[in-house]
């Protein structure tokens, strides 16, 4: 209680008592860091490439799979229920459509993610099992981000990749939301209706920063994967293997195999090139 009060007193932005205002203020620096990752800077410069976008989709798929499964499972939890908007927000099916567009009907075998994505997924699943109220922080970070800067990123993706239709861009589209601005206000007001003790509120702000950090680590890992694939497999055609010791196929059995191989040999493994 005391910590929160003094934190607020020292905050130059005079943050009020609403969770939505507090979470925005608490994650302001993390947001700047996320915007300044190499991947997001490439985005802002309109330099996103198809391999980058495809890899990003794979990680987003795994992140939203965990997030939306945990939100569904905890839909009636008193903290989760107010921000549970599957009709308007759910991204999993949009990501499946986009992945199928780029990888074909066998896309599930082609989903590869870096270690940071596995950590993010694990964090969401643990929160869902042990502290479901904190799923609010994860939903906030991803969904309000998608409805904010994410809307611009969608347009940039279409332009950068020279896509003439919206195929492959479902992720950015929210047909159930006519005004992202008004929907974000609704989401914020629902967040503000959640009853939290000061202790849980502090936890929530911490978790939101953890969520941003996990996103940053995913973006950084994706850039590393890309530098490996571009230096080692530049111009390789689809289907050729590339080397990496930081990529995880998303199937658990495959992850285990990869883990064992990496541990035993520390040599790179073969994956399909993007
Ligand atoms: C190129 C990178 C990015 C740009 C240009 C960008 C831009 C923006 C802008 C302009 C807003 C304010 C919109 C408004 O006030 O209505 C915003 C809000 C937000 N962004 Fe980003 N963003 C980027 C990356 C990210 C990332 C990577 C995340 C998290 C994973 C994120 C999460 C959020 C959240 C949660 C909000 C809502 C803040 C609030 O109102 O509480 N953003 N972003």
UniProtKB/TrEMBL annotation:
Record's subcellular location: Endoplasmic reticulum
Q: What class of enzyme is it?
A: oxidoreductase
Name the UniProt key words of this record, in alphabetical order.
Endoplasmic reticulum, Heme, Iron, Membrane, Metal-binding, Oxidoreductase, Transmembrane, Transmembrane helix
Q: What family is this?
A: Belongs to the heme oxygenase family.
Kindly list the GO CC terms recorded for this protein: endoplasmic reticulum
Q: Kindly list the organism's lineage.
A: Eukaryota, Metazoa, Chordata, Craniata, Vertebrata
Q: Which reaction does it catalyse?
A: heme b + 3 reduced [NADPH--hemoprotein reductase] + 3 O2 = biliverdin IXalpha + CO + Fe(2+) + 3 oxidized [NADPH--hemoprotein reductase] + 3 H2O + H(+)
Entry's EC annotation: 1.14.14.18
Spell out where the chain crosses the membrane: 253-273
Pfam families in alphabetical order: Heme_oxygenase (PF01126)
Protein name from the UniProt record: Heme oxygenase
Q: Which organism is it from?
A: Dissostichus eleginoides
GO BP: any one term? heme catabolic process
CDD domains on file: HemeO
* Residues where heme b binds: 24, 31, 140, 188
* Keyword Endoplasmic reticulum included in the entry's annotation: yes
Care to name a GO molecular-function term for this sequence? metal ion binding
Task: State the InterPro entries in the record.
Answer: Haem_Oase, Haem_Oase-like, Haem_Oase-like_multi-hlx, Haem_oxygenase_CS
């Amino acid at each position: 209680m005391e910590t929160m009060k003094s934190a607020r007193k020292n905050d130059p932005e005079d943050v009020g008592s609403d969770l939505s205002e507090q979470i925005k203020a608490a994650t302001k620096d993390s947001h700047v860091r996320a915007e300044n990752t190499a991947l997001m800077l490439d985005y802002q410069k309109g330099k996103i490439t198809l391999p980058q976008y495809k890899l990003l989709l794979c990680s987003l798929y795994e992140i939203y799979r965990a997030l939306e499964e945990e939100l569904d499972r905890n839909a009636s939890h008193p903290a989760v229920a107010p921000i549970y908007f599957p009709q308007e927000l759910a991204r999993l099916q949009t990501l499946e459509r986009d992945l199928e567009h780029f990888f074909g009907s066998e896309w599930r075998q082609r989903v590869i993610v870096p270690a940071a994505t596995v950590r993010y997924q694990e964090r969401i699943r643990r929160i869902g099992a042990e502290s479901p109220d904190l799923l609010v922080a994860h939903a906030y970070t991803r969904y309000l981000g998608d409805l904010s800067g994410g809307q611009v990123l969608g347009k940039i993706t279409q332009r950068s990749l020279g896509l003439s239709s919206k195929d492959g861009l479902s992720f950015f589209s929210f047909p159930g939301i006519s005004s992202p601005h008004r929907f974000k206000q609704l989401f914020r007001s629902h967040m503000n209706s959640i009853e939290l003790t000061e202790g849980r509120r502090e936890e929530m702000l911490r978790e939101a920063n953890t969520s941003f950090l996990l996103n940053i680590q995913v973006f950084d890992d994706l850039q590393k994967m890309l530098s490996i694939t571009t230096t080692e497999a530049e111009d390789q055609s689809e289907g050729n293997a590339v080397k990496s010791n930081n990529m995880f196929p998303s199937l658990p059995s495959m992850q285990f195999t990869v883990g064992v191989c990496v541990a035993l040999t520390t040599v790179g493994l073969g994956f399909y090139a993007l």
